[in-house]
Every structure is written in structure tokens, then in C-alpha cells.
Design a protein that fits this description.
The protein is of the alpha/beta class. The chain contains 16 helices and four strands. α3 links the parallel β2 and β3.
């Protein structure tokens, strides 16, 4: 199929660049443009015919693959989403997908057409039976029977979140850099966000958990009014944070000149105690190519920031995703408010309430520990008294 397409393209290019006479209109740009446009229009039937031939050949290729493989397949529609699976697993796929699709179906109502080219390949069982699905974007949910139901549910949620992320239009505010794909699916448990705010060693996260909402906007990187020094209290705290994040990859080559830009900044921050280097490391994480990345300097990372948008979708309910993508020129904060249908502060307050509700239980399991410990102590005493060394008589 690819060889046929390449051959047609080569024929068209060869026709364009071989035997073509120079433009007759010399010196007049307007006449040259008209003549060139006329030549392009003359070539249009040839290009259209080549495209039709490629389409026919592609379809013939697909038909031949189906004939050779002879794979019976089931196709089910779960809401607006097309799921392709092996024969006999259609009801199983529907049962797995329906609870998760029900969570986002109201959110994407009115925007279902955006997902027409998305197809899900689903297989749950032993072995790797092939599935031949056609679509612009093919999402794979293939798991073995040894995987738990929780693992299957998580894979389905991640694939649906990726589909939401893929249909997002390009926007000036850079939402794709601000959030990650997997964070867009509505979550019931935000304990990981709580941990990130509580243990990230930054002032914004601590103040946010204490109930100061303007610091929460700082924590998610949507305030854009404070410098990096406001996130971390002192130069000593900033050096400790850099040490916890960046030291280990460069400990072996600490004095080497080959550690690159990032290594130089780490050495300047920790070895020379230059607070400017610490601030640069904390205000913008670096690409793998070790060039400063123009990204948000928020203490909370993209996997946590995106849950704020997911909360806006949950509050906004029906059509909230369509409202969010309808204003790509607005700021992320304004689009969150528009999607939710309430002020941005209300969204932030609701998000923080859910984060606090998901606070991990630090004392979970402590009540079960003393009996277990006592049982092990008694068992060790029994073994000790039965040994030759401690046996009485």
C-alpha cells in the first residue's frame, strides 16, 4: 500500500519537474502567477485520478488482509465510541466500557462528532488474538486474564482521557503543556493531588491546603503574578528541593564538564550555593535535551493540574467539554469558568473540597498492627522455648 502511494507521488513529481517549459511571461510577477496557476489547474485531474487509484488500492489491500486473516470480529457502539473486539467478546467489552463512558457521555454531549475517527481495540483473555481495526486513531485496551478488574478499568479510563486530549484544538494559552492527557478523565479519588501539594516542599501547596484559594491558583500555575522565590520560602529550602530532585543523576559526574546545562545549574545551586541557579531549575523544568523549557513553573505538575479542568467538566455537566474547546483564544482560567458555568473561584473551591475529601488516611491499618505483632512475638517465644538451648529439665 505504501509502495503504491510512493509510486504515484513519484510519477506526479516526475511529471512536474521533467519536460516543463519555463514560464513565458518574464518580468511580470502577476502574469507569472496567473500562468503558474493555470498549469497547476491543468494538473489537478491527474492528481485527483492518482488519489482515486490510491484509495482503490488501499481498499483492496484492506480486503485482502481481512480475507487472509479471516478473523471474525465483534463491533459494538458504546455511546459515541466504537469498540472492536474478537468474536464473542462484544457483550464483555460493552460491560467493561459502559460505566466509564457513562461518566463522560454528558460532558461531551454535542461534541460526539469529534470522536468519529477513534476506534478502540479491546481484548481480555489468554493469548494475543489479533484484531484488525480501522480508524484515524486506534486505542488499544488489551489485557490478560491475570490482570485485575481495576487494571482493566484504569486502562479504559486512560484511553478515553487520551481521546479527549487528542481532540483538543491548538490554543494560545497552551493547555496541552499545562495538563497531561490522563488527568482529564473525571476521578473519584484525588489523593495523589493531596500528596503532591503536601509533600512538594513549596509554599504555594502548603498555603493552598490551609484554605487560601489564591495560593491554589499559584499551585496550579494560573495566577502568573508571583516569582519563583514566592513558592519556596528561603534559599536553603530551595537548595534542599533541588537536591531532592536533581542530585542523584549527577552525583557520579559531579565535577565533570560533560553534565550539560542542567548539571551546571545543579552544581551552581548546590556546590556554589548560587540561588539564581536554584531559581532557574525550579522555575522551569528542563527538556531531555537540557535546554530550558518555556513551561509553567507551578509546583503541582501537569498530572495534577489537569484534574482542575476535569472538575470543571464535572460541575458544568452536559456539554461542558464542548464549551471548553469553543474558546481556544481565552486563557485556561477563563475557559475553565466558561466550561463549568460558574466563576473560576467556585471551581477552585469545589476542587479543593474534593482534594481534602481524598486525603489519605495516615492511620489506616494501625489498629490491626498490635494483634499481629503480639501473635508474632508469641510464636517466637514458642519456638525459643522448644529449642535445645532453652528447654527446661
Amino acid at each position: 500500500m505504501s509502495k503504491n502511494r510512493l509510486g504515484v507521488n513519484c510519477l506526479v513529481l516526475a511529471f512536474l519537474f521533467s519536460g516543463v517549459e519555463p514560464l513565458t511571461a518574464q518580468g511580470d510577477p502577476g502574469s507569472q502567477a496567473e500562468e503558474l496557476g493555470a498549469r497547476i489547474e491543468a494538473l489537478r485531474p491527474l492528481v485527483d485520478d492518482a488519489a482515486r487509484r490510491v484509495e482503490v488500492e488501499e481498499q483492496a489491500y484492506l480486503d485482502s488482509v481481512r480475507a487472509v486473516r479471516q478473523i471474525p470480529q465483534d463491533t459494538v457502539m458504546v455511546g459515541p465510541f466504537k469498540v472492536v473486539t474478537v468474536a464473542g467478546q462484544g457483550p464483555l467489552a460493552r460491560g467493561f466500557f459502559e460505566p466509564h463512558v457513562a461518566k463522560i457521555a454528558p460532558i461531551i454531549r454535542g461534541s460526539e462528532d469529534l470522536f468519529q475517527g477513534h476506534v478502540w481495540e479491546f481484548f481480555y483473555g489468554w493469548g494475543g488474538k489479533p484484531i484488525f481495526a480501522e480508524g484515524e486513531e486506534v486505542h488499544h485496551v488489551r489485557l490478560s486474564r491475570r490482570h485485575s478488574r481495576e487494571r482493566v478499568d484504569r486502562s479504559i479510563e486512560e484511553s478515553l482521557a487520551i481521546a479527549l486530549y487528542q481532540v483538543l484544538p491548538a490554543d494560545a494559552a497552551g493547555f496541552r503543556k499545562w495538563a497531561t492527557a490522563r488527568s482529564l478523565f473525571p476521578e473519584d479519588d484525588l489523593s495523589r493531588v493531596y500528596r503532591a501539594l503536601a509533600f512538594n516542599h513549596d509554599l504555594a501547596g502548603v498555603r493552598c491546603l490551609e484554605g487560601e484559594l489564591h495560593w491554589c491558583w499559584e499551585a496550579v500555575g494560573l495566577a502568573n503574578v508571583m516569582e519563583v522565590g514566592s513558592y519556596w520560602d528561603s534559599p536553603v529550602q530551595r537548595r534542599r528541593l533541588v537536591e531532592s530532585r536533581y542530585l542523584w543523576p549527577y552525583r557520579a559526574g559531579w565535577e565533570s564538564d560533560r553534565v550539560g546545562v542542567q548539571g551546571s545549574l545543579v552544581r551552581g545551586c548546590l556546590h556554589l550555593e548560587d540561588d539564581r541557579a536554584c531559581a532557574l531549575l525550579l522555575s522551569g523544568y528542563l527538556w531531555k535535551s537540557e535546554r530550558p523549557r518555556p513551561d509553567y513553573s507551578a509546583p503541582l505538575r501537569g498530572s495534577g493540574r489537569g484534574t482542575l479542568a476535569a472538575e470543571a467538566f464535572r460541575i458544568g455537566g452536559e456539554g461542558s467539554f464542548g464549551r471548553f474547546i469553543s474558546r481556544p483564544e481565552d486563557s485556561i482560567r477563563d475557559r475553565i469558568a466558561f466550561a463549568a458555568g460558574v466563576p473560576a473561584e467556585t471551581v477552585m473551591a469545589a476542587w479543593m473540597d474534593r482534594v481534602h475529601e481524598s486525603r489519605p488516611n495516615a492511620q489506616a491499618g494501625l489498629l490491626r498492627s498490635p494483634p499481629t505483632l503480639l501473635l508474632w512475638l508469641l510464636l517466637m517465644i514458642v519456638f525459643a522455648t522448644r529449642s535445645v538451648r532453652w528447654r527446661l529439665g
